[in-house]
Amino acid sequence: MHNICDNKDEPFDGKTIIFGGDFQQTLPVVPRGLQEDVVFQSLLHSYLWHSMQVLTLHVNVCLLNRPLSSTLLNEECQFVEWLLSVGCGEGIANDGTIPFDPRMRVDTPEDLITSIYPHIDQVVPPPQYFLDRVILAPRNTDVDRLNDSVLMKLPGDETVLYSADSIENEPGADDYQEPLPVEVLRSLKPSGFPPGELHLKMGCPLILLRNLAPGRGLCNGTRLIFKRATNRVLEVEILGGKHNGETAFIPRIALHSSAPAGFHFQLKRRQFPIRLAFSMTINKAQGQSVRHVGLDLREPVFSHGQLYVALSRATSSQRIKILLPQGTMECRVRNVVYVEIFQWS
């Protein structure tokens, strides 16, 4: 999209601002918000919207840059058309589901892990191996379970890094309550926080949770490979992007939970701002592109654009694997689309 301004009275002092946007992808997160709350927080309802001109893309560059046989090219074109229909909310049945290619389906969590991370239990793979694959799930609880399962398979000794947690009451608040045990504080999982117990193995993939040094490639969402740990710093290798292969050091930092975190107190956690990245949430994966994508949809997607984002992370329909709840007979998945977001007028 462009913001095209012809005079100084327009936003951005008449400058032309170019940025990417796709309303088929996930929308701003509104804690406990209803559908209308989420739509209202989108760019569509910004005062800047009427100063913008929308430019649409019509050429699939990914297909142009890949040498394919006529049969495969036809299959990929069909996949692209299907993916666009997923993003637009077409073909959704009364039960909220859409069909998908049965070849994408796997039957068990073990099959999903084996499909995306073959031979991971035999040898620690090189960094490029993890750059090309990821398992996605809608919820953090599913992601944590998958990360633990894959980490157990990875050869090598496990390193456990514990956080230093404390409670910070608001000024003037009563300080009468008994302090919570350290184990309880470490078990808390506020949104966007690293875990209280970080379980790592040499060569495992990580994702950075904070902007530490954007100029050196250490941004929120950067993927890393774990190399070595001390009490105060982690040695990692940057995975992907302009700084691919460079060594970096991640310090422990203090993080403070926000008011809507679900606690009656503010949690202060001093920990390395990272998480395992064998698996990640669909929302966190937005902007990532990989060759092999696994989708754990035992718990269905719950928000606009999540299914579209998950499916569009892969560059080919042949490298997507989908896990459904046990006992599901049909190859159908839930799709959530807020159609009012496409009303640009």
Query: Strand arrangement, largest sheet?
Result: 5-19-18-6-17
Report the mean per-residue pLDDT as an integer. Answer: 86
Judging from the principal axes of the Cα atoms, what is the shape? globular
Low-confidence stretches: 1-8
Helix content: 10-25%
Series of H and E elements: EEHEHHEEHHEHEEHEEEEEEEEEEHEE
Structural class given helices, strands, pairing?
Answer: alpha+beta
What gap, in angstroms, lies between the N and C termini?
A: 15 Å
Major sheet: size, sense and barrel closure? Answer: 5 strands, parallel
Assembly type of the chains comes to: single chain
The Rg value, from CA coordinates, equals 22 Å
Question: How many independent structural domains?
Answer: 2
Can you walk me through this structure?
- The protein is of the alpha+beta class and 345 residues long.
- It folds into two domains: 2-108 and 284-342, no CATH class; 139-281, no CATH class.
- The chain contains eight helices and 20 strands.
- It has helices spanning 35-40, 61-64, 70-88, 109-116, 127-131, 140-153, 182-187, 306-311; strands at residues 2-3, 17-18, 52-53, 97-99, 105-106, 133-137, 158-162, 164-168, 197-201, 205-208, 223-229, 233-239, 247-251, 253-256, 266-271, 274-276, 279-281, 292-296, 320-323, 332-334.
- The longest helix has 19 residues, at 70-88.
- Mean pLDDT is 86; it is low at 1-8.
